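INFO batch 0412 | record 1 of 1 | parsing
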Amino acid sequence: MSDTVRRLLYRAVSSKVQSRIAGRISDAKLPTPVLERLIDLWVAHFGVNLDEAIIPPCGFQSFNDFFTRRLKTDARDFPADTCVMASPCDGMVQTAGAISGGMVFQAKGIEYRLADLLADSGEAARFEQGHFLTIYLNPGDYHRVHFPIAAEVRKVRHIPGGLLSVAPRVVELFNEVFGTNERVTGLLESDNGMVGMVMVGATTVGRISLSFSDVVTNKGKAHGICVFGPPLRRLRGDDYGAFNLGSTVIVLVEKDRWVPVHPGVGQKIRLGQAIFEPK
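INFO prediction complete | emitting C-alpha cells
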C-alpha cells in the first residue's frame, strides 16, 4: 500500500464526528457481561496489568471508566530527590532532543515549529535551546498524566485541531501532526524555570480532561486561554489530567536548566521515572 493511500485512510478514520460517536459508546453503561468481555479482550490484547489498578467495589461502570483507571498508591516510584523531574506518564519515548531554531523533531526527517505547537511564538522562545521529550502512550498504558515536578500552574491553552492518530507509524507519514492536532498546553513555573506540558489529542474519542480546570476537549467547545491568578500550586506526582483513549505528552524545559536522564528513543518509560535532573 502506498504512502498516499495510507494517508487517505488515516484521515478518513480521524474525523471529530467519528471520535465523538466513539466517545459516547465508551462512556455508555453497557450490560455487565458485554463490558467485562470487552475489558478482558483489551487487557489480554494490550497486556494491561490490572493488579496495579484501583478497581471500584462494583467494578468499572463504562469502558472509559476502565481506560482512565487510577493506580494504587504504591504502583509507581518517584526519585527520592524532589528536585528531579519525573515522567508524567507511562509510555514510550517517541522523540527527544534539543530545541534549535524553534524546531522540534516529530519523526525521522520531519520537524515542526514549536510556535505552532504552543500557538504562541513568545512562549516558544522561552524554550529555545532547551530540551523536549515526546512520550507516546500505547493503548494498554495507564492513561492518566501527573505533574512531573512541583510547580505553579500559570496558564493553560486549549487549541482546537484535527485528531489524526499519533502512533509512530502515522507521524512518520505527515509533515505535521502534533502542531495541528487538538491539544492542551500548560505552562508550569518550577523552582528551576518554566516547564511546558502539552497533551495532544488523537483518533477515537480524542478527549483530554484536566484535573485542575474545566477544560475538556473534543466537545464542540473552544476553551481558549485560561490564566490562573493566583497560580495553582501542585506537587510532583499530583494528578494533571487524563486521555480518554490514547495520545501523546510533550515535555519542554528551558535552556541551561536541566540535564536529560530519560531512556533513549524507542524505550519504554514509566510514570515517576527520572527524565531531567537540575543542571
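INFO post-check: The chain has two domains: 3-67, 85-278.
INFO record closed
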